[in-house]
Write a structure and sequence with these properties.
- The protein is mostly helical.
- The chain has 2 domains: 99 residues; 89 residues.
- The protein has 4 helices and no strands.
- The longest helix is centred in the middle third of the chain and has 69 residues.
- The N and C termini lie far apart (160 Å).
- One of its GO terms (cellular component) is THO complex part of transcription export complex.
- It holds the Pfam family FmiP_Thoc5.
- Belongs to the THOC5 family.
- This is Fms interacting protein.
- InterPro entries: THO_Thoc5.
Length: 192
């Protein structure tokens, strides 16, 4: 609104100066020139005032434009940051989706067998998988303990077999010695 008023005032002053300029061309006396100069002084003052006003308005507009540009730059930077964050989150989601964990390679009891043993376990797929993994862990620990007990029994039986084998070898040696002594005794009796 102020710029429209300033523009119309500038046009009015320039028209007045233009009309004074035309009068100057017509008159040639010094008195008339002084009179024209006196008449034009308020117009030149108005021009200076309008020029200062225009300069102030331009500076004000530049400041306001700079502030708005800073806001736009800040918003653009925030948008770029959000887009970068979104891209990083999408990358993390993709990595998580492509992740191959060890539980996928574990051979579990068949689902039907598990559900037959544990009919009370229900829920979503994740809860069911956790229950199956816990069950598999318990089963493997039980089987490992059973294997350990069987290995202890096996080593006991192997030790017992070794002891019997040593005794048998010793008995066989004693039997051979006895047989050799019996042959020697028989040979002595036959020589009579």
């Amino acid at each position: 609104m102020a710029s429209i008023r300033t523009e119309s005032e500038l046009k009015r002053v320039l028209e007045a100066l233009s009309s004074l300029s035309e009068r100057k061309l017509d008159s040639s006396s010094r008195v008339e020139a002084m009179e024209l100069l006196t008449l034009s002084m308020p117009y030149f003052s108005a021009l200076k005032r309008i020029n200062r006003q225009i300069h102030t308005d331009v500076q004000s507009q530049k400041t306001r434009i700079g502030d708005e540009r800073a806001k736009v730059d800040t918003a653009r930077l925030a948008l770029q940051n959000l887009k970068y964050e979104q891209a990083m989150l999408e990358l993390e989601v993709k990595i998580c989706q492509e992740f191959q964990s060890i539980f996928q390679d574990i051979q579990l009891h068949p689902l039907e067998e598990f559900q037959a043993l544990h009919p009370d376990v229900e829920g979503d797929e994740h809860a069911l998988m956790l229950a199956r993994l816990k069950f598999e862990l318990r089963e493997r620990r039980r089987l490992e303990a059973e294997k350990h007990e069987l290995q202890i029994d096996r080593s006991g039986v192997a030790k017992e077999n070794n002891d019997k084998k040593v005794k048998l070898e010793q008995a066989e040696k004693e039997l051979k010695d006895l047989l050799a002594a019996a042959h020697a005794v028989r040979d002595k009796f036959e020589s009579f």
